[in-house]
Amino acid sequence: MTRIYAFANQKGGVGKTTTAVNLAAYLADAGRGVLVIDIDPQANATSSLGIDPTSLSHSIYDVLIGRAPLADVIVRTALPRLDLAPSAPALAGAEVEMVAMLAREHLLRKALGVVVNHYDYVLIDCPPSLGLLTVNALTAATHGVVVPIQCEYLALEGLGRLWRTIQLVREHLNPQLIISGMVLTMYDPRTNLSSQVVNEVRKHFARQTFQAVIPRSVRLSEAPSYGQTILTYAPNSAGAQAYAALAREWLAREEGQ
Ligand code: ATP
Ligand code: MG
User: How far is the CA of 173 from the centre of ligand 2 (A)?
Assistant: First the structure.
């Protein structure tokens, strides 16, 4: 059965994209079929997976406004078993266009159709907002939301708004919606603040928080500019080992291995 997750946090730069693409790489490496859907007009997941967003004739934008079927926009990436539904700058206008469309919160869910049945995991990388694009991802997510949390000052600020949005989506649009996981990112072992955030998040969200903590790592921030995931860019780096550990933990949790 296909499992669909939204990677969401309206706070910018917390590691949504880095987590979605690198986790996707290790899940594919473990033999799973994975589709990353980039629903962020910034198209960072698209470029992080080596696809130039400006070179595409079609993107998830065309899918959302009903101009192209999902199957027509999916592209292969350099990694076996890892495919991408790319974003493009045009998506920036979609939120406005979608407002006038019927069942506007369900556009992505409906567009996924049977194509997603080819994959074990579908990871949707959301933009840093709680607007219609993120709501579409939350509505389409069959197995929950993954919330990356940056181990920094004010890490938990804004989570209340995210919770309320998730609750509203569960009540009105997607009764299955849960918070399936929280991932601590950009951990710096040299600062007390980082470990305080880890403790705080673990205290409040004991069940959801993954044991694997992603360290701050220059290699992780360099990889996207080479259009690579950490799996091929620096497989022995601390960041790579952390995402590999996250993928193992993920598979143990999700598949009970
Ligand atoms: P946005 O809200 O803009 O979509 P995001 O939540 O997707 O951002 P990322 O793009 O994944 O966040 O990360 C923000 C920046 O921090 C990027 O430049 C990324 O390369 C860098 N980064 C992410 N994780 C790490 C890490 N563990 N160590 C060092 N740099 C990181
Ligand atoms: Mg992002």
Answer: 24
The reply to whether ligand 1 has any atom less than 6 angstroms from the CB of 14 is yes
Query: What span, in angstroms and rounded, lies between the C-alpha atoms of 217 and 237?
Result: 8
Chain center to CA of 114: 21
- CA dist 51 to 43, 76, 83, 84, 257, Å? 10, 9, 11, 9, 33
pLDDT in tens, 48-61: 999 999 999 999 99
**Residue among 47, 214, 221 to mutate when testing ligand 1 (max atoms within 8 A of CB):** 221
CB 218 within 8 A of CB 237: no
What is the percent of the chain where pLDDT is above 70?
A: 100
Predicted TM-score (pTM) of the model is: 0.98
Instruction: Return the ligand 1 atom nearest residue 126 CA.
Output: 4
Instruction: Report all structural domains of the chain as residue ranges with CATH numbers, in order of start.
Output: 3-249 (3.40.50.300)
Question: Which ligand is closest in space to the CA of residue 220?
Answer: 1
Ligand 1 midpoint to CA 8 (Å):
13
**Contact between 46 and 53 (Cβ < 8 Å):** yes
